[in-house]
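ugh ok fine here u go
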Amino acid sequence: MNRKLIRPNLSEVKDKMSRETLKKKTNPPYETSAENYYYLKQMNKKTPLAVTFQDGETIEGYLEWYDKDCIKVNRENAPNLLIFKNNIKYIYKLNENQETQEKTNQKK
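structure:
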C-alpha cells in the first residue's frame, strides 16, 4: 500500500502565521504620563513634599522642576537640591503625613 504524503502549501502556512500575529494583544505603552501629571500638579500647587532616599535619609521642600532623570527640590533655610530619580526610594506629601499622624494621635 502506497501512502501519499500531504504537505501544506508554504504560502498557506505564512498566511496563517501572519493572521495569528495580528490577533496577539499589543503591549501597554511604556509611559503612561502618570508621573508627569503628578509632578506638574505638585509644582503648580507648591505642595510641601518629603523625598526619601535609598539610604533612608529624608529631605523636605517644594518641587521646582523635573525631567526624565532628576528633580529639583527647593528647601527653606537650606540649599536647593538636584536629585537623581534613581536615588529616590519614595516621595510623599507632607500635609497627608501630618494629617494621618494627627488622626492616630487623636484615637489614642
